[in-house]
Amino acid sequence: MVVDRLSCDEWHAVAGRELLGRGDASRRPDGRLFVSIDAWQGAVFDQLAAAMLADLPAPVHTVVDEADQDELAAWQRCGFTVARRESGYLVPTDPQRTGLGTVRPPAGVTVLPAGAAQEVPLTELVHAVRAEVEAAAGWHTMPAEILPSLTGYPVVDPARYAVARQGEAYLGLLRLGGPPGRNQPRIGLLAVRADQHRRGIARALLAQVLGEQHRGGRDSVWAEVDQANPAAVALFEGIGARRAATTLELVRG
């Protein structure tokens, strides 16, 4: 068996004309390099991984389903360790189930529906939120990926964001998207400025967005929550979200 690198991001393990396994690499919008391997045999997996890791710059990341102990063990054999644990939740939209039907924004705060925010202050809010997260837990702990522009500023699409505003100040946001392969819309980011925590702004954003989805005929949305963030876990589980999967992000430095 030999491992051939077909391109900058694809490797094949072959024996004669038989394809035994393949590996792929991709760089996420946040700059992190992720790899994946599709191989049935442990020896093929190990040889593919060794070739890929020799070719790629560190650090290298991958994700596995926590329930797949065989794949987890395979990556651990290659020196990968658990960097974060992220749970996927099915979040109900019916206000009778979430308890958000009577939730209103704090006094003086208005929740703008998706598409109503102005691009410049919204972009400034995303930039400010990112800086606060970087200074605390680190942006790598966030499930959301926000595309950077050539200037280093995040690129945002107001059509995907609901925003909490007080006067002219933007205080918090909820980004809703629909990635390929998933029927439910996905909460990609829910964040409130650090000096505005504990005012109920996050719950007000959820009440607005989930209510809109319910009126549109959707029973649930999808959300990913870092298990190291107890406040986020409590927020989603407190509105009836059900944990449906747990993903481990592994890293090899």
From TrEMBL:
Matching Pfam families: Acetyltransf_1
Keyword annotations of the record: Transferase
Keyword flag Membrane: no
Ranges for domain N-acetyltransferase: 123-253
Claim: Endoplasmic reticulum is one of the keywords in the record: no
CDD domains: NAT_SF (cd04301)
Source species, domain of life: Bacteria
GO MF assignments: acyltransferase activity, transferring groups other than amino-acyl groups
Family annotation (InterPro entries): Acyl_CoA_acyltransferase, GNAT_dom
Protein name: GNAT family N-acetyltransferase
Organism: Streptomyces tateyamensis
Species classification: Bacteria, Bacillati, Actinomycetota, Actinomycetes, Kitasatosporales
